[in-house]
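Quick log. Single chain, no ligands specified.
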Amino acid sequence: MAPSLTRPDGSALRVLVVDDEVNIAELLQMALRYEGWEISLAHSGRAAVASAKDFSPDAIVLDMMLPDFDGMEVLRKVRAQSPDIPVLFLTARDSVEDRVAGLTAGGDDYVIKPFSLEEVVARLRGLMRRTGATAARPNAVIKVGDLSLDEDSRDVERAGRPIDLTATEFELLRYLMRNPRRVLSKAQILDHVWDYDFGGQANVVEIYISYLRKKIDFGQEPMIHTKRGAGYVLKPAE
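-> predicted structure:
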């Protein structure tokens, strides 16, 4: 069994599970409690938004199809009050367009129904590792040129300017910064940032690289470069 994840202060992680199918929600609750996490259940969009505010979860497992309003609307409302909370979508929609739409809307990952409980747990562990679900470490600042990233506080700055990143954007930038001047293929990025084979949907990498460029390179000399046919590379601005 993989080592238990906790909040940096050692307390249990909290996961909000949102699914109108009670049996599925309870199965997920059982599997996630086995990880030592605190679980709250919601079976509608309204209940999910209220629970997200009261329960203060570290991650949300969110069904796309709910009886009152859909997962996209839940995500919008939750992110209005908790902008950085990672969200794992559950969806019966398996088209590329629907997957990309969910990620573009701000979801961090998705699992297609029917799914295995082990897969959901693995995806959640990956998401929560990105949001700091480990003990703090000393000297965890990565620097490339005038860009710095603190793995403990999760602060990112360029030339002293603070930059706000989502959980997935942070993990992508961390991977790039750990490999400065090295060309990383889309396959490598998928494997290291998303922790699994994303079905070959390399356009997800393109989407998140574009997000990073808008935040990291905006109004300054670019640090993130595309090597056509090879991948992406981050290096100090010249």
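Residues 117-130 form the longest helix (14 residues).
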